Amino acid sequence: MEIDIGIKEEDRKEISQGLSKLLADSYTLYLKTHNFHWNVTGPMFQTLHLLFETHYTELSLAVDLIAERIRSLGYPAPGSYKQFAGLTSLQEVTSVPKAMDMVQQLTKDHETIAKTGRAAFPAAENANDEATIDLLTTRIAYHEKTAWMLRSLLDT
Ligand SMILES: [Fe+2]
């Protein structure tokens, strides 16, 4: 059955493309944060191990909301590591950084995702897609706040 939610096809497509980049960034950061939860060492172990857990748990819920918004707009949600690698703006790591390098990387990554979310905004705004605007606003605010909190750990 044809989708008829009051948003034009080309607008739904453009919005979905922006959301797909946000999904790829969020999933990549979910995995990186979980990786750092597993592998962090040093005097800050307990603090960072638990902090990273709250972050990856939040991200694991967020990716579901983003993917399901893409589906509501009538497009398939990307869901493979290969697709995410092609869409994300984040750099993956295969080494184990020092604890504070992890914090620095995650700060940058949250900043990057805030920018990815903001880049998706105009298409949603032009189409009066309030549901996507609401989702993007929540995601941008979360990443800006989390970047601030992580950045604060880097003060010496
Ligand atoms: Fe764990």
Largest sheet: none
Number of strands: 0
Tally of alpha and pi helices = 5
β-strand percent reads under 5%
Class by SSE composition: mainly alpha
Q: Any ligands, ions or cofactors bound here, and which?
A: fe (ii) ion
- Poorly predicted tracts of residues: none
Radius of gyration: 16 Å
Question: What is the typical, i.e. mean, pLDDT?
Answer: 97
Q: Please state the overall shape, judged from the principal axes of the Cα atoms.
A: elongated
- Written as H for each helix and E for each strand, in order along the chain, the element string is HHHHH
**What is the helix content?**
over 70%
User: What is the end-to-end distance?
Assistant: 59 Å
Pick out its properties:
elongated; 5 helices; binds fe (ii) ion; 156 residues; mainly alpha
Task: Describe the fold and architecture.
- With 156 residues, this protein is mainly alpha-helical.
- Helices cover 76% and strands 0% of the residues.
- It has five helices and no strands.
- The chain has helices at 9-39, 45-72, 81-87, 99-126, 130-153.
- α1 crosses α3 and α2 (45-72) packs antiparallel against α5.
- The chain is elongated.
- The chain starts with 8 loop residues before the first helix and ends with a helix.
- The relative contact order is 0.18.
- The mean pLDDT is 97.
- Residues 37, 53 line the site of fe (ii) ion.
